[in-house]
Amino acid sequence: ESYFTYAGEPESPVDHDIHFRPGIGDDGSDTFTPRTVVYDLKGAFGTLKRENALYGVQQEKDAARQGLWGGSTSTISQPSIPQNAYQQHLDSGLEPPPLTTETVRFWSDYNRVFYHPRSLVPLHEYELNSVLLPFERWETGEELFANLDKEHDLLDRDLRPFLEECDQLQ
């Protein structure tokens, strides 16, 4: 991300159009998000949210919900996971402290980029730190994805929208 350049800046030594998809954020500014689809267990994304500084998904959900139900609704939510010191330092532009096994709780604790809302796909069948240890066996993950693919056609739902944006898919 440190090599990103925007309008009016010198050209970057890295072509970020290859691994990052260009887009337009809620405020109309140019954005770049990784060309990726991340599947992870429920609760494993940590402080990483589908809504971020680039994309406000909640506004779209609220607009869509208004026309579906005329009755009253109540929102139930879990408390937010607090950011660790490393992320807080990155967000404020300070030199971050070193990462250690004691300070990293989730892979997103040392994440620096924003993701497109469609890139993050939680797997609700299992929770992080479950006593079932769902991915101790490779076959369990294969079975989960096979069942999800039967239900949702993962290629069309999750991957195809990103593939259709590519000019020269390789």
TrEMBL record:
Bilayer-crossing regions: none
Keywords in alphabetical order: Mitochondrion
Domain of life: Eukaryota
Residue ranges occupied by any Misato Segment II tubulin-like domain in the UniProt entry: 1-91
UniProt cross-references to InterPro entries, sorted A to Z: DML1/Misato (IPR049942), DML1/Misato_tubulin (IPR029209), Misato_II_tubulin-like (IPR019605), Tubulin/FtsZ_GTPase_sf (IPR036525)
PANTHER family (alphabetical): MITOCHONDRIAL DISTRIBUTION REGULATOR MISATO (PTHR13391), PROTEIN MISATO HOMOLOG 1 (PTHR13391:SF0)
Family assignment from sequence similarity: Belongs to the misato family.
Record's function text: Involved in the partitioning of the mitochondrial organelle and mitochondrial DNA (mtDNA) inheritance.
Protein name, entry field: MtDNA inheritance, partitioning of the mitochondrial organelle
Native source species: Cryomyces antarcticus
